[in-house]
Specification:
Blueprint lengths: L1 H13 L5 H39 L6 H4 L8 H8 L1 H9 L8 H12 L2 H8 L5 H16 L3 H10 L7 H14 L16 H16 L1 H11 L10 H16 L5 H15 L4 H19 L12
Length: 304
């Protein structure tokens, strides 16, 4: 969620009009689009199972018993249960999520999977159970599908809102697959927001960073007197503003948690030196903010 706020802030500060309401709308629209990626990822094993059914018979006019074993994935108890789940089917239909038109990609991914020892071991395994099927599908997803360069290419080209979200959504999708219980027709999908407080956090972090942005920029400038703020990487400035907004306005989040979160983001989204630079500035400012009373943490273990 912090990454999506960071990206929205970057777009906001780059835009000529600085339309706050439009920027907020685009922020939540982007997060909503990410949920489609989650559904695409969950649907992928189901689509590949369909390819396994066809591949066992279309590759040869007279398939052998070994050829027919390739259809094993299409007979997976887990896959069949997912296909019949009302909530899953409804979500796919409402959001118009489908792999239709991606037949070449699906075929290539299935042929790559077919060559793996993981798949060969699975189709030769005589155990036919929900547990065995789920264990295979989860391992297949984590080891073969999620890291696939072909899938990464599809994600990058399909939707600009999906960029940099595939690792996060792959983790959520894998956990979802692991959570499905045998015989259950209950809704197994993770919600877009785990709690209403998550959505509130996103909105408040975005707004407070903008509203108090100049104050935070002044604080940063005080600690970087040998630098002009304009010369500091824009992404670094945004991350420091976000960190300060979170430290000040979210009194239930520990200081160390906030700092660590933004240092991790800096590793992936800013310059090689940004991590230590941001750490030094925020560490000094957090100490000053606590002394001046700007940072007031509440709750067990948060009051220092």
């Amino acid at each position: 969620m912090r990454i999506k706020v960071m990206q929205a802030l970057y777009s906001y500060y780059q835009a000529p009009s600085n339309d706050l309401l439009l920027a907020e709308k685009q922020l939540f629209s982007g997060i909503d689009k990410i949920y489609d990626l989650y559904l695409y990822l969950l649907l992928l094993p189901v689509e590949l199972a369909d390819w396994s059914r066809r591949a066992g018979f279309i590759e040869k006019h007279f398939p052998t018993q070994e050829d027919k074993l390739v259809t094993r994935l299409s007979e997976s108890v887990l896959i069949l249960q997912m296909m019949e789940n009302p909530a899953f089917k409804k979500a796919l239909q409402q959001r118009k999520v489908s792999w239709k038109g991606q037949e070449d990609l699906l075929e290539k991914m299935f042929l790559d999977i077919k060559k793996t020892d993981l798949f060969k071991k699975y189709i030769l395994n005589e155990e036919r159970s929900f547990a065995a099927d789920k264990a295979f599908v989860v391992e297949l997803f984590n080891k073969q599908l999620a890291p696939s360069a072909d899938l990464q290419g599809f994600i990058e080209e399909r939707n600009i809102y999906w960029n940099n979200s595939e690792q996060w959504m792959s983790t959520v999708a894998a956990k979802t697959l692991e959570s499905i219980r045998e015989g259950s027709m209950e809704d197994f999908l993770s919600p877009l927001y785990r709690e209403e407080s998550d959505k509130t956090f996103v909105r408040e972090l975005f707004m407070q960073t903008i509203i108090y942005g100049q104050d935070y920029e002044n604080s940063i400038a005080e600690k970087t007197k040998n630098w002009e703020v304009e010369r500091i990487a824009m992404m670094d400035v945004i991350l420091m503003k976000m960190a300060l907004a979170e430290l000040v306005h979210f009194n239930q989040i520990p200081v160390k948690v906030t700092i660590n979160e933004y240092l991790e983001i800096a590793k992936d989204y800013s310059t090689p030196k940004s991590n230590s630079f941001i750490n030094g500035i925020i560490d000094k400012l957090s100490a000053e903010y606590k002394t001046s009373g700007k940072i007031k943490k509440q709750g067990a273990g948060l009051v220092e």
